Amino acid sequence: MQKFTISEDMETTVFEKIVSLGRRSLTAGFVVWLGIAVLLVYVVSRHSAARKAQIQHGCHPVRQHPRKDPILGLDYVVESVRAFRQHRFLATLQHRHKTSGMTFGIRVFRSRGIFTIDPKNIQAILSTRFKDYSLGNRSTVMGPLLGRGIFVTNGPEWAHSRALLRPHFVKDRLVNLGSLEGHVRSLLACIPDDRQVDLQELFLRFTLDATTDFLFGNSADSLAGGGTEEEREFSEAFRLAMDDITLQFRMGPFSVFRRLDPKVKAAYRTCRTYVDIFVDKAIAKRENVDMTEKGGEREPFLDELAKTTTDREKIRDELLSILLAGRDTTASLLSSLFHVLARRPDVWQKVRREAAGLKGNAPTYAALQTMKYAKQVINEVLRLYPPVPNNRRVAVRDTVLPRGGGPDGDFPVFVPKGSLVLYSVYAMHRHVDLFGQDAEEFRPERWDTTRCSWEYLPFNGGPRICLGQQYALTEALYVLLRFTQEFQSIETQDTTPWTESLTLTVCSANGVQVTMQRVKG
């Protein structure tokens, strides 16, 4: 048998490998410990900075909403999901504020959230500390349709969108009443005399027609059932896109699977392609045609926007953003308005008496300004049924809310970077401390004396206040007055209370089932 021996060279090689392995182990261990040390220093410094800020601002801990599961907060999740499915999420949130105060905290798993309906806090979120917050990851869900439009961007990108759009919304007589009258007539023609009809579905089609006409100078014509094949495809694709965005918000992190659906992709593509056609025409027109207004008529919004930029994608993204807001929010307002009127014949008749001053003529801008009671009715509808009832922001840096800390909620609250802050306009508008003991009652006359600031926010507030506020109010007021001219009464056999259907906006889960009688003679 051959004897195995280890040469001196082999000994040296083995030794070097052992030393090298030891060095690598020491290096790896050092890196791990260095990483732990850096993380520890970061955590300690963050805690120290947070503690310093809390002391500086006199912050106290926010009151926590009571939970049965203090570790994971699963009871809160289960209750919220159940309330949403049962169409009572808004009422559930309102009840939480009644039991836990205007501002309270929630912990679910490792995440922390702060809920508030305190006007001072909402003012801080939306205005005085506006730069401390962002929209969060809204673009993940809405980006496939809206691209980099105003409703999904933050910071300088949002400021650019705002600066681009705002000049086109501050003009007098923003709404072309002559064009609006045409759409109202199409709407009125869809309502049978003395037979039940769902106004909510009609309002969604009406606002789509009116908004596409306002934006493109070309209506989707969904009420009359006319239009081209492309317009009908766009109307259906836009409806599907809105439903999909709502579903994705509900699905949370699982929404990625929804975005893989070929039908959804096709719907988004159809919407964007349809708008692109008008954008290309407007840009080409800008180069070849004198785009000054003629005959006192306002140009389509798109043509005016094309005067200020030729960025095709930017124009398209902003137009789709405005279309989304113009369709859903105004349809929500009109649906809630007529839900109430069908149950309040006294209010209906009082508006009719005021509208009688028009002597059967279509309202002019001057006439709209004189309709005090009709405007109060709309204000009261917006108070009780704000189209966007809840909203949220994410803190992009450590910040402070002025109230909500301590046992009575009188002290400031520290809001760490990354915290989710949610505010409910719906619950705030119904709080007795802000609107009196009759806060739940529909009473338009309260606006004779009520003067509101941050406690009344149907169109948001601060730098992100709704650009289309006057457009929506003008459209709703015009429709209300024209209906009172056309119909002598509105009734409903639906005795069920208003039930929420939460999508991007809120509407009635049961529709607006009414019977209307036309004026005779």
Automatic annotation (TrEMBL):
Similarity annotation: Belongs to the cytochrome P450 family.
Pfam families per the record? p450
| Presence of keyword Oxidoreductase | yes
The membrane-spanning stretches of this chain are 26-44
Amino acids binding heme: 466
What is the protein name for this chain? Answer: Uncharacterized protein
One MF term in GO for this entry?
A: oxidoreductase activity, acting on paired donors, with incorporation or reduction of molecular oxygen, reduced flavin or flavoprotein as one donor, and incorporation of one atom of oxygen
What PANTHER family does the database record attribute to this sequence? P450, PUTATIVE (EUROFUNG)-RELATED
Sorted alphabetically, the keyword list is: Heme, Iron, Membrane, Metal-binding, Monooxygenase, Oxidoreductase, Transmembrane, Transmembrane helix
Necessary cofactors: heme
Q: Which organism is it from?
A: Talaromyces islandicus (Penicillium islandicum)
Matching InterPro entries: Cyt_P450, Cyt_P450_CS, Cyt_P450_E_CYP52_ascomycetes, Cyt_P450_E_CYP52_fungi, Cyt_P450_E_grp-II, Cyt_P450_sf
